[in-house]
TrEMBL record:
Organism classification: Bacteria, Thermotogati, Deinococcota, Deinococci, Deinococcales
SUPFAM superfamilies the record matches: Dimeric alpha+beta barrel
GO BP terms, alphabetized: rhamnose catabolic process
GO molecular function (one): racemase and epimerase activity, acting on carbohydrates and derivatives
UniProt xrefs under Pfam families: rhaM
Species of the source: Deinococcus ruber
The protein's name: L-rhamnose mutarotase
Gene3D superfamilies: 3.30.70.100
Length: 109
């Protein structure tokens, strides 16, 4: 496998009344979901949550479109996204389809 070379950052908004539950769900991500993410090319994946519910996601991948498509093709992702969707405000589609991708304007290697 080639090494990751695209850094992706995205935003979502978690419902303030569901923050604690959202955090607890991510302390116990399903093992098959973790395996699917790795297999689809999601590397160095992190989620950061602000107290008002702003969620910042970061990942590295060789090909972001392929990483998204790889996850979209899995049953475990469909189940996880369906369970996570109610946690978000103003979501269009599934969480992995509705995040706002940010433009990288600086990187220090």
């Amino acid at each position: 496998m080639s090494s990751p070379h695209h850094r992706i950052c995205f935003l979502l908004q978690v419902r303030p009344e569901r923050l604690e539950e959202y955090k607890s769900r991510h302390q116990a991500v399903w093992p098959d979901m973790l395996a699917a993410l790795r297999s689809a090319g999601w590397h160095n994946y992190s989620l950061f949550l602000r107290p008002d519910g702003l969620l910042v996601g970061y990942l590295e991948t060789p090909d972001f479109e392929a990483a998204l498509a790889g996850m979209a093709a899995t049953d475990v992702n469909a189940r996880w996204q369906a369970e996570m969707a109610p946690f978000f405000v103003a979501l269009q589609g599934r969480p992995d389809e509705g995040f706002l991708q940010l433009e990288e304007v600086f990187h220090l290697d």
